[in-house]
Fold these 2 entries.
Entry 1:
Amino acid sequence: MKKENSLRKRAQLESLIWHVNSCQPKPGERIVDFGAGSGHLGLLVAFLYPDCEVVLVEPNAVRYETSISRAKELGLGNCTGFMGTLDEFAMVDEEGSAGCWEEDPVDPNR
Ligand SMILES: C[S@@+](CC[C@H](N)C(=O)[O-])C[C@H]1O[C@@H](n2cnc3c(N)ncnc32)[C@H](O)[C@@H]1O
């Protein structure tokens, strides 16, 4: 990664963490990363808040798979994924259905 790009990514992560910290997430709360891409932001949040559930919502299959395999590699058992759009995720959530993010949690031992 070019230095310029790494500085930009670092600023993005710092800004995100500042915001998440200001929300003071409590143990057991769910934090949803909409448009998670390959997981840069959500994985860091899952690492910093191991007592919260972090859901990575991403419709692009390649990016989704990358984010989930990174979560597994990092052993982030509090991180789950939903492959779909924000609207699809909201629908599943509203219906109270388990959805794939609960049926298919990231199991670090898989
Ligand atoms: C600019 S990327 C950001 C990726 C990541 N959050 C990051 O900062 O590195 C935006 C992501 O949003 C996803 N996306 C686009 N439309 C979406 C939607 N309706 N619901 C959820 N994600 C969406 C895209 O597939 C893409 O991976």
Note: The two ends are 30 Å apart (CA to CA).
Entry 2:
Amino acid sequence: MKRSLTPNTPPSPSAVSPDILVARDVWVGVQVDKIVKPIVQGGDLRVPSGQILGLVGESGSGKTQFVRALMGLSNLEPGVISGSAVYSLGGDFAPVDVLSEVEDYCPYRPPQNDELYPVRQRIGWAWPLWRRAHARRLQALREMGVGFIFQNPMGALNPYMRVGSQLMEAVRVARPDASPGEAEEGAIHWLAQVHLKASRETLGLYPHELSGGMAQRVMIALALAGEPRFVVADEPTTGLDSHIRREVVGLLHRIMAQGDLSGIVISHDLPMVARLCDRLTVMFRGRVVEEGPIEALGDPDSPSHPYTRELKERAEALARGRGASRSRAPGQSPDSTGVMVGQGCVYRSRCTLFRERRVEPSLCEGETPSRLEIASGHRVACHARELLAQTPGGGPAVGGHGDHGGAHV
Ligand code: SF4
């Protein structure tokens, strides 16, 4: 059956994009005391149709809030959200910018010129209006075929509904005309797809009767039962033991490799991302510092941003069973995560090239590096791109085909 949707952009044949999602200059900020701290600063990302993008970075890098904003799931208020996030899911649907008009409602705007923090532009009463408008767009996104695999399945599953009822509801998103028998058949099919016992007995369970691994698989089945064209998985293996994690990664790999599914996997597990994804976007302290094809980022001879190199070295060290220490500037606080506002490179306090003065320090301190291409489709935000090419980094940890016991970066 043809699903209906009122797009916020008029259909246009020229608007058909080879990219299923293009996000540009996205800002997200949260109010802390009397200021709004920007936790995503001018984030860009692009998901080509039929590809899976891995979004990596350590805790506090802003990756989850970035994607939550793109999905209309941001729970930050009052604050700042701005930019654009255009979904081109094809079929009957015109491209939709889920962030269009957000600035008209937002109490703060992003900083400009020499401003350090977002600036208040109106009182906050307009914010709930935007959330209401946004809820409609989120519903539209679901109807268009966008699915979510959340970080905490127990928090995302409805504790009062049996697994079967939740799965049958998801099946009806894709097949609104399905009879109760057909919806149940579809629910059992998806149980089998995620390697759960495909029976009415499993359908009759409540979420509290599931183990952690089972709940995660039900969550995956729920996301896929709606037959999405685009799926977002936020730390899909967090909290699972290594055996279950391997199983879930294998399951995701099998599902994501078939069909023309596109999506984003958010994780700090670099080997898992390398196995599941076609492209990689790396964030540090709210900024995207590198993006490129997964092969380039796994190739030890390919130049990488110094932060990506650090991630790869730490993943390798952990995979070898050794703890990895961060390179730290003398006198730097051990708690080095969090936002960094103003001009300059966000990574400079941990950058060896900067510390050893192999690049002009005033450049790294005074100018935020733009992301520029160092190879086809591979961009790095670093003032020392020539040096990166001379000091290749990386290694087998992101080769993409090994056993993934959860070497977290
Ligand atoms: S811009 Fe400067 S500080 Fe930043 S990663 Fe490059 S060399 Fe290091």
Note: Residues 1-16, 327-337, 393-409 have pLDDT under 50 and may be disordered.
